[in-house]
C-alpha cells in the first residue's frame, strides 16, 4: 500500500486516480509540511474516497512547541475530527531532544477516533530506539513515520529494522522512497505500506508513470 503526500485538492484527486491508498495532506512541502488550511482539509475529505491523514504542525521552525503553539495545534486536531479526517500526523519534542509525552497525551485526548501517526520528528531525537519504547506506552499511536534517523529511508535501513523489531505499532518508512529502492525496503523491513513524496513526482508535479513503476516494484 502507498501513502502519498499531497498539498491541494487537485493533487489529492490525482493521487487517488493514480493509485494511492492513503493521503498525507500537508501545506508547505519544501519545509517538510505544516498544517493545511481549513478549506483544503474540508475539500479533500469531501472529494476523495481514500483515507486522508492531515499533518498537524503549526510551524516549520522546530518540533518544540510553546503554549501558544499547543493551543493552535489542539484546535487543529479538533477541526480535523469535525471535518471527518481519517487520521492525523503529529510529532512533538522537548528542548532536550526527547519525545514530548505531555503534548502527545493532549493530542490523544482531542483526536477522538482518528488514527494517529507520529511523524518524522522522531528522526531528530537523541535516542531513536528509546523513543520507540516511549511510544509503545501509547497504544493510541497507530504508525510511526520515519527514515530511521537518516536523510533517507534507504540510508536508515538498519535503524529502521531495529525500530521494526522494537515497535508495537506499525513502522511506516518514508523519505527518498521510489521505484528503485522500494522492493529492498519492503523485503528487509517486512512492511507492506510505504510513504512517498518526491518519489512519485517529476519537477514537483505528481507523475502517473512513477506511480505505476512504484506499484509494479511493490507487486513483484
From TrEMBL:
<protein>
    <recommendedName>
        <fullName>PF03932 family protein CutC</fullName>
    </recommendedName>
</protein>
<dbReference type="InterPro" id="IPR036822">
    <property type="entry name" value="CutC-like_dom_sf"/>
</dbReference>
<comment type="similarity">
    <text>Belongs to the CutC family.</text>
</comment>
<dbReference type="Pfam" id="PF03932">
    <property type="entry name" value="CutC"/>
</dbReference>
<dbReference type="InterPro" id="IPR005627">
    <property type="entry name" value="CutC-like"/>
</dbReference>
<keyword id="KW-0963">Cytoplasm</keyword>
Amino acid at each position: 500500500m502507498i501513502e502519498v503526500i499531497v498539498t491541494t485538492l487537485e493533487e489529492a484527486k490525482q493521487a487517488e486516480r493514480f493509485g494511492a491508498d492513503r493521503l498525507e495532506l500537508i501545506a508547505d512541502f519544501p519545509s517538510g509540511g505544516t498544517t493545511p488550511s481549513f478549506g483544503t482539509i474540508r475539500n479533500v475529505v469531501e472529494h476523495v474516497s481514500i483515507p486522508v491523514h492531515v499533518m498537524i504542525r503549526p510551524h516549520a521552525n522546530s518540533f518544540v512547541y510553546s503554549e501558544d503553539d499547543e493551543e493552535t495545534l489542539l484546535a487543529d486536531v479538533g477541526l480535523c475530527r469535525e471535518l471527518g479526517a481519517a487520521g492525523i500526523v503529529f510529532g512533538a519534542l522537548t528542548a532536550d531532544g526527547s519525545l514530548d509525552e505531555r503534548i502527545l497525551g493532549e493530542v490523544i485526548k482531542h483526536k477522538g477516533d482518528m488514527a494517529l501517526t507520529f511523524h518524522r520528528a522522531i528522526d531528530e531525537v537523541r535516542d531513536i530506539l528509546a523513543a520507540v519504547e516511549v511510544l509503545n506506552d501509547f497504544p493510541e499511536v497507530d504508525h510511526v513515520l520515519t527514515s530511521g534517523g537518516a536523510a533517507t529511508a534507504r540510508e536508515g535501513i538498519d535503524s529502521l529494522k531495529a525500530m521494526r523489531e522494537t515497535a508495537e505499532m506499525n513502522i511506516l518508512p518514508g523519505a527518498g522512497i521510489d521505484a528503485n529502492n522500494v522492493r529492498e525496503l519492503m523485503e528487509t523491513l517486512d512492511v507492506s505500506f510505504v510513504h512517498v513524496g518526491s518519489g512519485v513526482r517529476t519537477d514537483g508535479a505528481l507523475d502517473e508513470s512513477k506511480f505505476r513503476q512504484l506499484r509494479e516494484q511493490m507487486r513483484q
